[in-house]
Amino acid sequence: MPVVVQGTSKIHRPAAQDTGPGALPGSACGHDGPVRILMVEDDAAVAASSLDGLRAQGFDVEHVATGGAALTAVASPEPPDVVLLDLGLPDMDGQEVCRRIRSTSEVPVIVVSARGDEADRVIALELGADDYLVKPFGMRELAARIRAVLRRVATPTAPAATGVQELGRLTIDRRTQRVHVDDEEIALTAKEFDVLAYLAEDPGAVRRRTEILEHVWDGHWYGATKTVDAHVAAIRKKLGDPAWVEAVRGVGFRLGSPER
Ligand code: CA
Fold it and tell me: What CATH number is attached to the domain comprising 227?
């Protein structure tokens, strides 16, 4: 039976360590000092080895063992830059934790789980997780995934990343992540926005499902291309006309322009 770690343990890195690898994507954090990681893990042995590894990489790691403590930490005045979320937690399912985090925060979430089957990956993705890592994993891979999600947060992906793009009745504001059709604001999830914004980078160009996965989910979602279809279906429904996103049979999707 695994030992449950009670409460939280904060590990503060000295200032001299701030130039270590953990501080590399500093511009992604919006604060000085090393990247803050919130590790949500109830297995003390897994937590201990990951804590050591992440500390060695220069990250500032806060560890909690329950979903409730994770939600509290995300809502705190000094929220983490990245959440590593175990799915099997003692007080609530990790998927529920992910859903609740996503309802209040844009913090990148990397689901870390022994459950590696596609259904779990797809569910986590659809709840707004940014990446999915299956146990056991190497520390270098974990650190690389953390840096990748931080780069995605820090690096605008679109040519008009800070501007407002108008496409007929459709307006996409990448800075505020807001979408309007005519004057009506459309409430898209972060991933739905990313899919739409990616298609809008080159209106009319066909993007393959694998390209969309690669771009929006960083290519870690092997075999989950049907998730793209689910997101496209949601975007069409919310925009109010399926013609906004055209399916190109056997290829992928492109941004369309419905008749009024
Ligand atoms: Ca667990």
Answer: 1.10.10.10
